[in-house]
Amino acid sequence: MSIPNRNESTAVYDFTVPALRPWSHEVKKGQILRIVDLEGCQAVDTLFYSKADPSERYSAQDTVRVQGSPYVTAGTKLISNLGNVMGVVIADTSGNHDTSAGACSAEANTVRFGYETRYMHSCRDNFVMELSRHGLTKRDIVSNINFFMNVPVEEDGTLAIVDGISKPGDYVEIRAEMDLLCVISNCPQVNNPCNGFNPTPVRTLIWDA
Amino acid sequence: MAEANRKEKYTGPYAAQQERYDVLFSGAKARKKDMADAPRNPAVLPPQLVRSSEVLAGGWGHALPVKRGETLRIINTHGTPGVSVIIYNAADMSERLNAGDTMKVQWSARLTRGAGLFSDMGRVLASITDDTFGDHDALTGGSTPGSNAERYGDAGLRSTYGNFVLLASKHGLDKRDIPPCVTFFAPVKVDAEGRFHWEGEGSAPGGYVDLRAELDILVFVSNAPHPFAPGPYAPSEIELLVWKSPPPAPDDFCRTASEEAVRGFENNARYLAARGEE
Fold this sequence. Notes:
The structure holds two protein chains of two kinds.
Chain A (H helix, E strand, L loop, with lengths): L12 E5 L4 E6 L4 E6 L6 E7 L9 H8 L9 E3 L5 E8 L13 H8 L9 H10 L12 E3 L22 E7 L3 E7 L15 E6 L2
Antiparallel strand pairs in A: 1-10, 2-9, 3-8, 3-10, 4-7, 4-9, 5-6, 6-8
Chain B lengths: L14 H16 L19 E7 L4 E6 L4 E6 L6 E7 L2 E5 L2 H7 L10 E3 L5 E8 L13 H8 L7 H10 L12 E3 L3 E3 L5 E3 L8 E7 L3 E6 L15 E6 L15 H16 L4
């Protein structure tokens, strides 16, 4: 896999998203968004909306159908609910990013891990809070990409979050094919291995075309 | 490889959670998946049990309210390759089927007898109480104008996306409200190389799936071929029956299929109690 040698000092945007926190930013058509897993094994739950019309948004099922494979990696075209290419993953130093298992929530945690986990931070709540800044609500949350989250789907259908494979400094880059709103939850989950039971910061950088 | 990056096992502030996760995953892997001993529903439903019936034309969509305790039977009369479904809580349609949670809480993309269809709110919208086919798809969705153009050279053919937009609009919703769907009678598998493929011949004529409503729900059904289905675009009619199924027993196999199922139904019970519905 070829890794472009992009100079961090030329980025037009550079931000470190603290552990547990949400983030959002516009990524204009042609710009390149890099998401860096600073310490490794940190799930980054990510949604994309068309900036011009947020009712057009990332569609996980359309994306995996078009590429014929369930995992997001370099070359994956991110397909919208209207069948348009929203972005392309142009670099990936890690591989096997999930887009089928969705985001964690306080509600699903009660089913997965017990009712006593209902008052813990979750990606769904992060998404709701961040989307509310853009006039969007829970109904706008669709199945997201879980960068750096490892969810193999086995031949018998077994689907489980297993230990991550990303190393400190691994990153993905997405080139926007339309003006995008990117919304991230830096996953706070500590009930499964998606963050190595230790949520850590991630870094987002944007370059002009 | 999966174990390689884990820091010391069962140490640190979340050691208890680490251990619990491994116990839960081991339990899921050990669980019997085929539910072979579970009771079957009648193959032929006595007419007095059927509350409503609809013959849904090939390519078209239909919406059905199903009350808690009733069962929607989707009969694949002629063996059409794929019937896509999304489900809403009828009392609050912002609560809807969540395919990711459904797979994740049950540790499986294979949804068949004994499985629940979960909402985004940690509740069971419907249980699969019977299933003569066994291979359904929650990963790759339904057909779209784009998939019809690619498969059949005609974006204007009726698609699942189009059907869901129409149904949503006729119930005060819009395309923002269309979540990932589950497509029944679609044997989509992931091979060892991580590629999807359509496995086998598809459903025999007359195959059916029974979905027992666990809350009052609204079901959108799209009778359009799955985008991976082989052959020409030729969806055939299906039959949709809403029937009065017997009340679930305390040891109902869907409600006791796993500890996750038990917790899901505890959430349903809390919700119903809070609404004064027992």
